[in-house]
């Protein structure tokens, strides 16, 4: 592994002050090597990366199959602009994606660079296809930080702070207890019933359904708190959009490519078929690539020239993505996701059930290796059995203690929530190490009060 490097430390010290202060950093060091679920910084400190680059390196850092594919492609051709000609990896990626899409009707693709760009195209395409001006999104949803994508993001106000956003956007509550102002113990069917009522009110009071092009929904609310959509909610959205002539866009940017234990979260809901799927993150295991898939009848309503991009569908990134799809075919990635998920949930549920730590925890939730623990806060809930003041900033304190033990973890949402998104190839031993660190951190915060 890398040895401490004084030259790199000097490089960091001299130049980090020239990086925009609008960009924060979890770790104020340089990552110089990554392998599997682990990374090392310039001081040779080793960490288990429970962030996976925010859900990107699903196959782990520097996966050998991805590395080999990228090296081979770089030696062939590095850039083929998508409007000028085809590249071999672009076509191979289409060929590999077709049989693994959640439904064979999703048979037409466009590849771009980031999840936000895929969302931008989805907004343009659904408006053009339906000839309708408005969009409905989910309260708590996150779709990106570019102009239109941030306009349909409702997880935090920071993403649109001080900027003018796109008009014609209406938000409806997701079936999440915070969004509906109820207890975290509220049964799922009640949450869905309340969310249905609010959506029906929206089209009666705020925007006519005939003016809505599409509903955008993450099947697991991501940056807004890692909240899985109940199957009944997704089925309702499918029925609702079909009834009113709207399109249903499912944003699988984070949930796609095995993150939730199946290739797509949509596969967890039998018979569920969206009109459009957007995807990115795990697609190319760290190389900038995103995609959008839909029916050809929808895609062909975009006239030639209305979509494109200098780097869209770059052949090197596509080669990485082809390698990713091949690894999923040949290795038991999904089996490992489900086994490690059970291991992680066992730890988190034990913390919630423990008399020592349970009063700190409002909710444990997620799917596969997209998991969250939400802590209680004094302005929302009264701690059960608490005789003293409610601890503040529980998540941040727990996060620091976990990082101090050599595990990178992230908080998320406007609520006190910690998210766990390790690489899908994390081993049983690495997961055990992380679970021990999580348990130790929560127990220490509980003792400190």
Molecular structure report:
- By secondary structure, this protein is of the alpha/beta class.
- The protein folds into two domains: about 5-60 and about 330-449, Aspartate Aminotransferase, domain 1 (Alpha-Beta Complex), CATH 3.90.1150.10; about 65-330, Aspartate Aminotransferase, domain 2 (3-Layer(aba) Sandwich), CATH 3.40.640.
- About 35% of the residues lie in helices and about 15% in strands.
- It is built from 14 helices and 17 strands.
- The protein has helices at about 5-15, 50-55, 65-75, 90-95, 115-130, 145-150, 175-180, 190-205, 230-245, 295-300, 315-330, 335-355, 395-405, 430-449; strands spanning about 30-35, 40, 45-50, 110, 135-140, 170-175, 210-215, 220, 225-230, 245-250, 275-280, 290-295, 360-365, 370-375, 405-410, 410, 415-420.
- The strands form four sheets. Strands 4-12-11-10-7-5-6 form a seven-stranded mixed β-sheet. Strands 1-2-3-15 form a four-stranded mixed β-sheet. A four-stranded antiparallel β-sheet has the order 13-14-17-16, with helices on one face.
- About 45% of the residues are buried.
- One of its GO terms (molecular function) is transaminase activity.
- Its cofactor is pyridoxal 5'-phosphate.
């Amino acid at each position: 592994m890398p040895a401490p490097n004084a030259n790199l430390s000097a490089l960091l010290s001299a130049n980090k002050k020239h990086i925009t202060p609008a960009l924060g950093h979890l770790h104020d060091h340089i990552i110089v090597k990554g392998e599997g679920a682990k990374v090392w910084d310039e001081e040779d400190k080793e960490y288990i990366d429970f962030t996976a680059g925010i859900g990107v390196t699903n196959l782990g850092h520097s996966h050998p199959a991805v590395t080999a594919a990228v090296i081979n492609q770089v030696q062939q051709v590095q850039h083929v602009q998508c409007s000028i000609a085809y590249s071999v990896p672009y076509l191979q990626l289409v060929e590999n994606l077709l049989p693994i899409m959640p439904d064979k009707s999703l048979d037409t693709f466009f590849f771009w660079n980031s999840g936000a760009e895929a969302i931008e195209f989805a907004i343009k395409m659904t408006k053009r296809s339906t000839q309708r001006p408005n969009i409905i999104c989910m309260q708590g949803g996150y779709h990106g930080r570019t102009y239109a994508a941030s306009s349909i993001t409702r997880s935090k106000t920071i993403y649109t702070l001080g900027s003018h956003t796109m008009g014609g956007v209406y938000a409806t509550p997701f079936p999440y207890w915070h969004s509906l102002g109820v207890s975290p113990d509220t049964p799922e069917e009640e949450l869905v019933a309340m969310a249905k009522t609010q959506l029906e009110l929206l089209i009666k009071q705020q925007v006519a359904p005939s003016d809505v092009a599409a509903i955008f929904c993450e099947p697991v609310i991501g940056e807004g708190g890692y909240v899985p959509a109940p199957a009944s909610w997704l089925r309702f959205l499918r029925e609702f959009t079909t009834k009113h002539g709207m399109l249903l866009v499912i944003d699988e940017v984070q949930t796609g490519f095995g993150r939730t234990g199946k290739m797509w979260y949509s596969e967890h809901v039998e018979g569920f078929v969206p009109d459009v799927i957007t995807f990115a993150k795990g697609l190319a295991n760290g190389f900038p690539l995103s995609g959008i898939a839909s029916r050809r009848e929808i895609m062909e309503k975009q006239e030639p020239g209305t979509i494109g991009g200098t780097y869209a569908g770059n052949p090197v990134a596509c080669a990485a993505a082809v390698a990713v799809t091949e690894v999923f075919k040949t290795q038991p990635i999904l089996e490992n996701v489900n086994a490690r998920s059970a291991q992680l949930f066992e730890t988190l549920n034990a913390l919630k059930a423990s008399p020592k730590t349970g009063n700190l925890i409002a909710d444990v939730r997620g799917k596969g290796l997209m998991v969250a623990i939400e802590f209680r806060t004094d302005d929302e809930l009264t701690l059960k059995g608490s005789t003293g003041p409610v601890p503040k900033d529980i998540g941040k304190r727990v996060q620091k203690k976990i990082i101090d033990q050599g595990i990178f973890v992230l908080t998320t949402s406007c609520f006190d929530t910690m998210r766990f998104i390790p690489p899908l190839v994390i081993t049983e031993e690495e997961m055990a190490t992380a679970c021990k660190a999580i348990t130790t951190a929560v127990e220490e915060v509980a003792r400190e009060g």
